[in-house]
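Action item from last meeting closed. Structure (295 res):
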């Protein structure tokens, strides 16, 4: 007797169009915001577009994933579709790896090539003629033209808030793994406890990073517009913070679904996908801590 399952094909949906339009508005607003900030201009238009884009993205995620949850709870998904979901999430995380690899590549290029060239080192050391008094150091606290770009007064001490945040994220990976094992063992009460701890650690990380940014801007003059160190610092840590925010939203959604009894010991891909993403975010932070804060 055949045991082949039917592959579910969803009906036409508006959500891909909403997602594309929201992403376009969000990224356009972010580009305007960053450009106006570095140029010292009014960034109200960028803030408005960025905010509208985020609202659109929130609407899209709420509606689209709500539809997916409805279909899943309705028993429409087969084992074959579950494999497709896993492959899709794997490719998504791979694209995120490439995303951060590009920014780490910028950091290495600046540190190993561009800055040394400006001090007279390497094949293009002739650039030293532009600023003969420039000395290559990293972190770069004295820019070639400090009167034009300004310079940071100091860098973030890695052994205070960054070290605490490292402990928070590593611990959150442990508690999330414990929650996963508890879910597979059918211990739902224990799963809820570990998930609540994971969420608390994640949101505490975000709160501390916001405090760190305020300190950098108000007391250290470490901003996006004070040279290449500030630019790379905020691009890397800022995008990571955005990913932590997304991860916290995913964990919160999964936690609510656990409270509603949506998952079973054998069927909980949404939990697994969120856990994969969270562990990826943790690994990226460990690289950031070592390569941006410490070395």
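Sequence:
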């Amino acid at each position: 007797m055949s045991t082949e399952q039917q592959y579910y094909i969803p009906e036409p949906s508006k959500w891909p169009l909403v997602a594309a339009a929201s992403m376009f508005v969000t990224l356009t607003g972010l580009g305007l915001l960053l450009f106006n900030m570095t140029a010292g201009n009014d960034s109200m238009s960028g803030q408005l577009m960025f905010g509208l884009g985020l609202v659109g993205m929130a609407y899209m995620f709420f509606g689209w994933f709500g539809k997916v949850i409805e279909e899943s709870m309705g028993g429409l998904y087969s084992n074959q579709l579950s494999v497709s979901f896993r492959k899709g999430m794997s490719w998504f995380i791979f694209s995120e790896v490439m995303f951060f690899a590009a920014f780490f590549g910028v950091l290495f290029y600046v540190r190993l090539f561009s800055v040394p060239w400006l001090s007279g080192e390497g094949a293009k050391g002739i650039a030293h003629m532009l600023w003969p008094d420039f000395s290559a150091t990293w972190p770069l606290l004295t820019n070639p033209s400090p009167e034009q770009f300004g310079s940071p007064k100091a860098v973030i001490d890695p052994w205070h808030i960054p070290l605490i945040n490292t402990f928070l994220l590593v611990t959150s990976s442990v508690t999330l793994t414990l929650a996963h094992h508890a879910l597979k063992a059918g211990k739902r009460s224990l799963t809820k406890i570990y998930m609540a701890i994971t969420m608390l650690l994640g949101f505490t990380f975000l709160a501390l990073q916001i405090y760190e940014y305020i300190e950098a801007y108000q007391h250290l003059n470490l901003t996006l517009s004070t040279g290449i160190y500030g630019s790379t610092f905020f691009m890397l840590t800022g995008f990571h913070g955005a990913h932590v925010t997304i991860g916290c939203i995913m964990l919160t959604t999964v936690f609510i679904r656990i409270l509603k009894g949506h998952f079973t010991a054998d069927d909980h891909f949404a939990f697994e996908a969120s856990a994969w993403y969270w562990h990826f975010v943790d690994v990226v932070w460990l690289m950031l801590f070592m390569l941006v804060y410490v070395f």
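Note appended to the action item: The CA atoms of residues 224 and 234 lie 7 Å apart.
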